Amino acid sequence: MPFAPGKSPNPGGRPRTTPEMAEAKRLAREHSPAAVRKLVELMDSEDEHVQLKAANAVLDRAFGRPVQETIVREEPGDVTADLPRPERIALLEAALHAERGAEAEENAAVRATQDAMQREAN
Question: Is pTM, for the whole model, over 0.90?
Answer without folding.
Answer: no
